[in-house]
Amino acid sequence: MEQGQAGAAAVDQVGRGADFLQLDPASAPAHGLAGWLTAAVRDAITDGRLPAGARLPATRVLAGQLGVSRGVVVEAYQRLTDEGLLSGRRGGGTGVLATSPRPAAVRAETAPVRVPIDLRPGLPDLSAFPRQAWLRAERAALARTPDHALGYGDPRGTLELRAALATWLGRSRGVRADPTEIVVVNGVAQGLALIAQVLARRGVTTVGYEDPGSRGTRDQLERWGLTLEPVPVDDRGLDVDALTATGVGPVFVTPAHQYPTGGVLAPERRRALLEWARAADGRLVIEDDYDAEHRYDRAPVAALAAVAPEHVVHVGSVSKTLAPALRLGWVVAPRDVREELVARKQWSDITTPALGQLALAELITSGGFERHLRKVRARQRDRRDALLDAVRLHLPGTRVHGVAAGLHLLVGLPDGADDAAVAERALAAGVAVQPLSHHRLRPGPPGLVLGYAATTPDRLREGVRLLADAM
Ligand SMILES: Cc1ncc(COP(=O)(O)O)c(C=O)c1O
Predict the structure, then answer these.
(1) Measured from the CB, is residue 252 less than 6 Å from ligand 1?
(2) DSSP state of 211
(3) pLDDT in tens, 387-409
């Protein structure tokens, strides 16, 4: 209620006009108007002029006030939606979804903003980052690193990390790769960007993409010029018959824990997908090994690259096991793809920063990484159970999907429900959730994606209670 009133006040405040932007339309640049406006709105969110829950003026209204075309405002809102700062829905308004982190000095000068309970997926529990173990790993790695290793390194990454990953991926994911066959990248995001470039160079314009599938990855691939052909996903993962019918060559999949539905690719579908890949030239499975390490009630499923390495490009990172801030990931690819990928990596940034790689290698080889995973797995299981219990109590009759693994689950909504509208009402009530429609390429059944890794059981229960009230 309190949050709703704060939101309503913000609506009034913002609805009056573009004052919150503190922009002088006369200072608008001749080119790059959308970037100019995006930066201004982002600043307003960052320094608290626009609190979470505030509603932005309609695109037509703001365009009129600033004297720019409506397309400029639409583009700016879209960019900020992609950044996770705004939420928009067709026919409805656009609201501030999150306040972005601010430097402490700025934070201290502005009135505190009540942060809603944030159940949006995408982050591990950052408070669980093993700071002491990481510090020890950094010290040990630095003490052992000779001066010459501080120069420009191998574009594939340090040998230390590639060797540690070769052992780790073999043991935990069944991927048999020599250190020379692994490329260290700045997270899955860079891995996918490089793969998109390799595909484009091969003349690929259209790729298969899970529907629903990660909105962030989809936006990224589209910005690299790929057209995504939607391939439906159900509780057993990607529909391989539908994939075959599309006629595409490469396909991007999240087989270990489908994002966002949470399903694991069923054994018969795994076989069918690999048969599909083997059946014709130009077919390639790009395996985003998302959330593979977080399993609770079932034995781990080996990566697809463990079974058919010549047809699979395997991509992973420590963003969901340690922290996205490390920007450390890896690609294991068939030789021809790998060679092109390494060239592109070199042309992009020469190589991934070495010190973080060396610390991660130390953390893995010392056993600290595995100890950390065991610790967070137990905590995450408790949180998942708390969330499940709360959903059963407060949202009886809803179907829950994807509970066996990962850091989020999916709550199905009744047919015809508008999940974006539910998410907006929930936000006004103080709990941020993600509508499944955000990740859809084509319309489909509605749902809410709820992340639980970063929220304590009490806050999870409170969040679901607020969500139920909003529904
Ligand atoms: C589907 C998917 N894969 C991978 C990642 C991790 O990306 P990165 O390793 O670049 O942090 C994300 C991030 O949220 C994601 O949504």
Answers:
(1) no
(2) E
(3) 999 999 999 989 999 888 889 99
